[in-house]
Design a protein that fits this description.
The protein has 278 residues and is mainly beta. The chain contains two helices and 20 strands. A seven-stranded mixed sheet has the order 16-17-18-19-14-13-20. The protein has a five-stranded antiparallel sheet with strand order 4-9-8-7-6, with no helix packed on it. The chain starts with 6 loop residues before the first strand and ends in a 16-residue tail after the last strand. The relative contact order is 0.17.
């Protein structure tokens, strides 16, 4: 006789707290990372409901269908749901018309959960990039004028292509920074910090900027697909620079980059949207 697994209750939320939920499941020890174009840009870590295990999902604040915004692409079988205020990608839900065999009814981005021991979570990779059809079409690059000799052009965009940019860099990108603060961790952002004058943007009218705490960093994400693209700095020592999320860069091999770990989580004030709420 199989034993009922012991359940652990996790609290989850978008960064601004407009959408909060509780997830009661067996202890999360594994997660799935998909290589498809959307999951790659958002750096999702997925937990899927298992038919043979308990799975309790309860919304505490907000509404799945009105607080969160849907983004669909390809054959539009799964709705990627993100907060339109802070950009946090929370979950995906199978659409009623889906014809995909054995597709999960929903999945939770565990980056939105508290109290997960991420250092011990085993991440399994799913090669969605080679399976999902039609293939992702990279948008046309942003024109940035003449490229000086010895300069490399890097082109990037959100998933839907509404927000895009070209970076002209005097050196090859070989490293990026991963910050463990509450917003960067949720966005799975990998940052570089070029001078703003080296970046040509297109479609900033489709971007939403979200800031919190001391308001020094304005996190720009696409209001259509929710992908985190850039940071704009105000009143800091980096006001002449922009941060670019290299996950949004096309034809850049992330595995070849040296990743610097930044401990933004330790900076005050401490992040806490739950407070005494249950």
């Amino acid at each position: 006789m199989s034993r009922t697994p012991q359940l652990v209750e996790y609290r989850g939320n978008c960064h601004c707290g407009a959408f909060k939920f509780k997830l009661k499941v067996p202890e999360i020890k594994e997660a799935e990372a998909c290589t498809c174009s959307m999951c790659y840009k958002n750096g999702y870590l997925w937990a899927f409901p298992k038919p043979d295990k308990c799975w309790e999902f309860t919304v505490v604040k907000g509404d799945e269908n009105t607080t969160l915004k849907n983004y669909l692409f390809g054959k539009k079988m799964m709705a990627h749901k993100f907060c339109p205020s802070c950009g946090t990608s929370v979950m995906e839900v199978r659409m009623p018309h889906s014809t995909v065999v054995n597709a999960p009814s929903m999945a939770i981005n565990i980056r939105t959960l508290e109290d997960v021991d991420f250092d011990s979570v085993k991440v399994n990779t799913f090669d969605g990039a080679s399976i999902l059809q039609p293939p992702y079409q990279i948008p046309e690059p942003v024109a940035a004028g003449p490229v000086p000799e010895g300069t490399t052009s890097y082109h990037g965009n959100c998933h839907c292509g509404a927000v895009a940019y070209t970076l002209l860099s005097g050196k090859k990108i070989s490293e990026a920074a991963s910050c463990n603060c509450s917003i960067c961790w949720r966005d799975a952002a990998l940052w570089i910090y070029p001078e703003s004058k080296a970046v040509t943007f297109k479609g900033l009218e489709s971007a939403v900027e979200y800031t919190f705490a001391k308001g020094g960093s304005h996190h720009g994400f696409c209001k259509i697909c929710g992908v985190s693209v850039y940071e704009r700095f105000v009143g800091t020592h980096q006001d002449n620079k922009s941060a670019l999320n290299v996950r949004t860069m096309n034809d850049l091999d992330l595995a070849a980059l040296e990743i610097e770990q930044l401990d933004g989580k330790s900076l005050l004030p401490a992040y806490d949207v739950w407070g005494t709420e249950e």
